[in-house]
Amino acid sequence: MTRKLRSREWFGGNTKDGFVHRSWMKNNGLPDDAFDGRPVIGICNTFSEFTPCNAHFRGLVEHIKAGVLEAGGLPLEFPVFSCGESNLRPTAMLFRNLASMDVEESIRGNPMDGVVLMVGCDKTTPALVMGAASCDLPTIAISGGPMLNGRFKGRSIGSGTDVWNFTDDVRAGVMSPEEFSAAESGMARSPGHCMTMGTASTMASMVEALGLALPGNAAYPAVDAHRARLARMTGRRIVEMVHADLRMSAILKKTAFDNAIRVNGAIGGSTNAVVHLLAIAGRIGTDLSLDDWDRLGRDVPTILNLMPSGTYLMEDFCYAGGLPAVMKEIEDLLDLDALTVSGHSLGHNIAGAENFNSDVIRPRNKALTGQGGIAVLRGNLAPDGAIIKPSAASPDLMSHRGRAVVFETIEDYKARIDDPDLDIDESCIMVLKNCGPKGYPGMAEVGNMALPQKLLKKGVRDMVRISDARMSGTAFGTVVLHAAPEATVGGPIALVQDGDMIELDVHARRLELMVSEDELSLRRSLWRPPQPHRISGYEGLYIERVQQADKGVDLDFLVGCRGNDVPRESH
Ligand code: FES
């Protein structure tokens, strides 16, 4: 290799600066030959005990390091902000961009030639990929893997999805609080992230479909030895990628995003993938729009029978053949020439893939739904777009006209939803405002509002819901999300009032507020923006600079690739 590695700018040369950089590193026990010009591999670890989905990463990282050493590299682990979905308030999404800044500056400012991204819980994956994409070094991702299937009363239960079901059952009076508590203990049975096709599993699939992770990344359970072996191979492979100077920009081409969007349709992936892929594309400088999601996903059948769209869980998906088997089933819809971190094309990676369970990974003629992608809706209620996941919605509500029942904030919703006097029936459309990127702030996963208790008791299990929020990837229902512009900046959703008629037509991709333009103009003139929660600190910066959902909810000044030039010396 003749190319000079960037780590030589720190560790090469017999100068005062070289002395400083090497000497302090030697306090970790590194011998002289650790600085002989071998590739330095940064391993970006999102371990945190507050992020239970990634809490096994201390063990997993050792396998990556072993692989790096075997291939002749120097592995150096570094921590970054860990945004765990289950604990972080007000929502982990508020901190995705903050974590991405941490990742980007950690990579650029330190002596590394290649990067391994250890990702798992929902936001950790996009945060790390976004930050790394703004640097564009050779980079490979490895997910921590899903938990084993949850178990309760002799059956499998899925994280997230069954929490929503159980919550509704308790509120409907068909599940006792004791059973609810017992289910809680059976849900998370092993290390790993949510084992439904929620956002974590979706993003693990997305990095594999984008070509940023080795084949098999999406589905091996966290505790399966295959996961440890994959980590070892990932460590070996990143050293080879540095030698070949195989950078993220060579992989994250438009065709890679097109493939990922199609795969998202096939797996019934999370709606959150929309904002995350838009943000990643923005960082690497690839042109991707909300309309690409509709255009590319429109005719992709959902063939993966996993919760929340279907029945099974990630462990079953692994045993059925994992993501390579899904991609094999839809290979005619993919660009098989797309380059991946394996050094081979996507087509090469999936050439030998087999489907071992045709009820988990369905053949195309037995798909869960023929139109599995994300539908992008437009109309006077969301001129910059809103989205819905048809595979998780009720077919009989896909075309629906109903009376709006409006909640100004999530607190307003919580205060009134179970009021017996609330004027609502199953034909109504629930509208939730001020939960978008600036409004919450952070665009919380509250769009799948639970139904009123009085309707649950009648057996109603789905209604049309519309908001500027997101929803958990594990959630389901006829839920219109990401309405843009959001209410807090004066988007049309801010103008909806109780009793207005709204028309949803997913097939025609329309979302209309049936109110005259004169009336809307009057309401617009009377509208006043709500007071922001906080105007200082990171939250203040976020509110000031965050972009709307159709742009990926990135901070405007973070968009783009700023490269990996070595910064000036510090001493
Ligand atoms: Fe971490 Fe679901 S809470 S993946």
Q: What is the second-level CATH architecture of the largest domain?
A: 3-Layer(aba) Sandwich
Distance N terminus to C terminus? Answer: 30 Å
List the uncertain runs. Answer: none
Q: What is the CATH homology-level superfamily of the largest domain?
A: Response regulator
Which descriptor suits the 3D outline?
globular
Q: What structural class do the secondary elements suggest?
A: alpha/beta
Which band does the percent of strand residues land in? 5-15%
Multimer state: single chain
Number of helices: 20
**How many structural units, i.e. domains?**
4
Strand order of the largest sheet: 12-11-10-9-13-14
Total count of strands: 14
The top-level CATH class of the largest domain is Alpha Beta
Profile the largest sheet: 6 strands, mixed
What small molecules accompany the polymer chains?
FE2/S2 (inorganic) cluster
Overview of the molecule:
- This protein is of the alpha/beta class.
- The chain has four domains: 1-32, no CATH class; 38-148 and 190-365, Rossmann fold; 151-187, no CATH class; 375-535 and 541-545, Glucose Oxidase, domain 1 (3-Layer(bba) Sandwich).
- Helix content is 34%, strand content 11%.
- The protein has 20 helices and 14 strands.
- The chain has helices at residues 8-11, 16-25, 57-70, 96-109, 124-133, 161-172, 177-187, 199-210, 225-244, 248-251, 254-267, 272-284, 290-297, 314-320, 322-329, 346-350, 410-416, 453-456, 517-526, 537-545, and strands spanning 40-45, 74-79, 114-119, 139-143, 150-152, 155-157, 375-377, 386-388, 399-407, 429-432, 464-467, 479-480, 501-505, 510-513.
- The strands form four sheets. A six-stranded mixed sheet has the order 12-11-10-9-13-14. Strands 2-1-3-4 form a four-stranded parallel sheet, with helices on both faces. It has a two-stranded antiparallel sheet with strand order 5-6.
- Helix 3 (57-70) crosses helix 9 and helix 11 packs across helix 13 (290-297).
- The two termini are 30 Å apart.
- The structure holds FE2/S2 (inorganic) cluster.
- Residues 53, 85-86, 121-122, 159, 193-194, 198, 200 line the site of FE2/S2 (inorganic) cluster.
